[in-house]
């Protein structure tokens, strides 16, 4: 990873071990002019960061216990069930709720497709969480993981503005 290598390392470390962060600053870094640092805000680094962050979230299914899940995602506590537990299901439910990036909902929905495709897990999740295929279909219509709806709305808005500009031009040409 070129943009998020350190962050990826920290996520993987934190998923395996308890860590402590000292209060004093131990690192300094130089900020170069014109966003020349590897982490500088340039189109290619922002695009790369998004791709790497999507790749990085694939570390989260490795969470092995509900306690660790709650340590990472405190809102997961509401999905604890004494009569059964599916950690990946809990993860895929909390991922879209977090919404730090549009792709977190896509990540969650993608894992849900895998979960529902397994008949035994699908039945267990239906029994434990009252969640089934129809709930999945409902979620796929709500979470815009690729931001298509936002892009469509923006394009529609731009098309309307272009049409208005064209009408004004035509009006002035006819005068």
Using only CA atoms, what is the Rg?
Answer: 23 Å
The share of residues in extended strands comes to under 5%
Span from first to last CA?
A: 60 Å
Q: Overall pLDDT, averaged?
A: 83
Q: What's the main sheet like?
A: none
The helical percent reads: 55-70%
- Secondary-structure-based class equals mainly alpha
**Which sequence of SSEs, written as H and E, runs from N to C?**
HHHHHHHH
Return the domain count: 2
**Overall strand count:** 0
Number of helices: 8
Shape by Cα distribution: flat
| Parts with pLDDT < 50 across at least 5 consecutive residues | none
What is this structure, in a nutshell?
The protein is built from 8 helices and no strands.
Describe the protein in words.
This protein has eight helices and no strands. The protein has 175 residues and is mostly helical. The protein folds into two domains: 1-18 and 45-62, no CATH class; 73-162, no CATH class. The longest helix is centred in the last third of the chain and has 27 residues, at 148-174. The mean pLDDT is 83.
Write the topology of this structure.
Layout lengths: L4 H12 L26 H14 L9 H7 L14 H12 L3 H16 L1 H11 L3 H8 L7 H27 L1
Keywords for this entry:
175 residues; mainly alpha; flat
